[in-house]
Specification:
The protein is α/β, with parallel strands linked by helices. It has three domains: 11-148 and 344-358, Nucleotidyltransferase, domain 5, CATH 3.30.420; 153-337, ATPase, nucleotide binding domain (Nucleotidyltransferase, domain 5), CATH 3.30.420; 378-578, DHBP synthase, CATH 3.90.870.20. It has helices at 38-42, 52-62, 78-92, 97-125, 137-146, 190-200, 209-215, 224-231, 258-264, 276-305, 320-329, 345-358, 378-387, 398-410, 443-452, 466-472, 490-496, 521-530, 555-563; strands at residues 11-16, 23-28, 31-37, 69-75, 132-134, 153-163, 166-174, 177-185, 309-313, 334-337, 393-394, 415-418, 432-436, 461-465, 473-474, 486-488, 509-510, 512-515, 539-543, 569-572, 575-578. The termini are far apart. Residues 1-8 have low confidence and may be disordered.
């Protein structure tokens, strides 16, 4: 066996699976150097293939070329995925021959595209060819969560729809090693059912599951028993689908059986459901069923493994209501929910696995808040503003920039805040944010109707300095990443009672962004200043993007999104733009 090809200044480039939403991440001795999703750079939410723009950004951030990369690690094993999917479909062939044949053929086409992508990556990497590695999808999810956490030992659970032909995994992480102890096979996927219900409710599956989770807060779990029966074989057990509620093909626009529709009192193949009360009740029932099943299973697993800490990743765990349920209804002392829990996070996980398994290197430290995307200087921002013929004001100091912003916020303005490096993952954490004072009249209506163009039932996050949060809220460290929910104390309920409805949610839940001065000093200072003439240092924080687009990344994205939306002002680096 040859010795590891490790250099003192070695870099690892990680890539996610290239079937959809690809991303790239670069790590080195100092930890994570860069990470970004391809769609944010190409300005589309539907992208597949090799993330060339993301790779280029990562290399430019480190000021290296591809030859300086020790290994390129890919978070997918397409042949393994094809084997699992075709085996599953072959077992169904006698029951559903037409759909099984279709999906076996489809899986072969996906395999061909993936293998071609691997070939192109090897050509891009050049010699030696053995520096291109591939890892299991769920192993990469697990690595992104465990090696991105501050824990030295933890139980790791990953759950999604169909990563490399599987729906989840349970692993134990210790030091620099991860050992898988259980696999969750498709179709026993809570995430797959979540997407099916998302379609049933009239939303787009695989992109609008967040709408289903928030709609559930407006409903009652009247169908809880149905979903518990459909999604598990027994209490405390791993998720397991009850076949009588699903079509034998496990495919099609909707895969619910006649029995499912009978139990919910709907005509077969009803889509979308017209009655808003029924839609909300179905969403609430699914959400609570997932929480019950997940928490019972995790608590049982905790007792068996004697684990004090838990790491979570995978698309299902992008659900902050589920993460909050795990934190409150299990007895783990520590829980870490990976901020980039979706497929983009597997790029980071693949890089971590190569770093430890091939290099034998020690851990590179707690990853922290993921400000790993592109960052632009005042000169770069000015060049774009001048090219766009935009009128702007120069703020000659940080103090002046914060002061101008706070005055606009207190005047009821919606401010686009474009500062520092872009966030990796789906959430705006104070660098690519739209900000507003929660005490401004019609703040939610203005944000929903004129800026975000979204449904009124979807809540906004409230950002607050971390040291002030404990006075008003019960919260966990995951509030740093907006991956969980906080619960308002009595003092918090009194404070939020003066705000428009919708910030204080069902069961006193709040979507809280706890901002540490160590994570984001500028945003922390802005929050502190905003609280000097307000009941508390709180601002509404939502993502800075146009409807249907990813988070803004480059200055031109910010300028276009600002002028095409109802935002009143843009603070980009040290430049201030206002609309009359």
């Amino acid at each position: 066996m040859s010795a590891p090809r490790i250099k003192t200044d070695m870099y690892i480039l990680g890539l996610s699976a290239m079937t959809h939403d690809p991303a790239a991440a670069l790590i080195g001795e100092q930890g994570v150097i860069a990470a970004i999703e391809e769609g944010k750079l190409t300005r589309t939410r539907t992208v597949e293939g090799i993330p060339r723009a993301a790779i280029q950004f990562c290399l430019e951030r480190a000021n290296i070329d591809i030859a300086a990369v020790g290994y390129i690690a890919i978070g997918s094993r397409p042949v393994r995925s094809w084997e699992r999917q075709t085996l599953f479909r072959a077992r169904l062939a006698a029951l559903a021959p037409a759909s099984s044949g279709y999906f076996i053929s489809k899986a072969f086409g996906e395999l061909s595209r993936e293998l071609n992508n691997f070939r192109l990556i090897k050509e891009l990497a050049g010699d030696p060819p053995d520096r291109v590695l591939s890892f299991e999808h769920h192993q990469c999810h697990a690595a992104s969560a465990f090696f991105g956490s501050p824990f030295d030992r933890a139980l790791i659970v990953t759950l999604d729809e169909l990563g490399d032909g599987r729906s989840g995994s349970v692993s134990m992480g210790e030091g620099t090693r991860i050992r898988e102890v259980k696999s969750v096979a498709f179709p026993n996927s809570l995430a797959w059912v979540y997407s099916q219900v998302t379609r049933l409710l009239g939303f787009r599956p695989h992109s609008e599951e967040h709408k289903t989770q928030w709609l559930g807060l407006a409903g009652e779990p009247v169908f809880l028993d149905l979903f518990l029966d459909a999604l598990r074989s027994a209490p405390n057990a791993v998720p397991h689908l009850n076949a009588k509620y699903f079509r034998r093909s496990y495919a099609g626009e909707l895969s619910f059986s006649d029995e499912f529709y009978r139990r919910v009192g709907l005509p077969v193949d009803a889509q979308p459901i017209a009655d808003d009360v029924t839609r909300a009740n179905i969403a609430a029932s699914l959400q609570q069923a997932c929480a019950v099943i997940l928490c019972e299973w995790l608590e049982t697993t905790r007792q068996k493994t004697d684990s004090r800490s838990l790491c979570l990743a995978g698309g299902l765990l992008l659900n902050p209501l589920l993460v909050a349920a795990v934190e409150s209804d299990t007895r783990f002392e520590n829980v870490f929910a990976q901020p980039a829990a979706g497929i983009e996070g597997t790029a980071l996980g693949a890089a971590y696995l190569a770093w430890h398994r091939e290099g034998g290197r020690p851990r590179v430290g707690f990853a922290g808040v993921p400000y790993w995307g592109p960052e632009f200087s005042n000169e770069a921002v000015k060049s774009v503003l001048d090219n766009c013929k935009a009128s702007y004001k120069w703020c000659d100091s940080e103090e002046a920039k914060i002061g101008e912003t706070v005055r606009m916020l207190h005047a009821g303005k919606i401010v686009a805040w474009y500062q520092g490096a872009a966030e990796f993952g789906p959430r705006a954490l104070g660098n690519r944010s739209l900000l507003a004072s929660p005490w401004s009249p019609y703040v939610k209506e203005n944000l929903n109707d004129y800026v975000k163009h979204r449904e009124s039932f979807r809540p906004f996050a409230l950002a607050m300095p971390e040291e002030d949060c404990a006075e008003y809220f019960d919260y966990t460290p995951n509030a740093r990443y907006l991956t969980t929910m906080a619960r308002a104390k009595e003092s918090g309920r009194k404070l939020l009672a003066d705000l428009p409805p919708g910030f204080l949610l069902k069961d006193h839940l709040v979507r809280l962004h706890a901002v540490s001065s160590k994570d984001n000093l500028l945003f922390w200072k802005l929050l502190k200043r905003s609280g000097e003439n307000a009941p508390a240092p709180i601002l509404v924080n939502t993502s800075f993007n146009l409807f249907g687009e990813p988070l803004v990344v480059q200055p031109r994205d910010a300028v276009r999104s600002y002028f095409c939306s109802g935002a009143d002002a843009l603070v980009a680096a040290n430049f201030l733009l206002k609309k009359n």
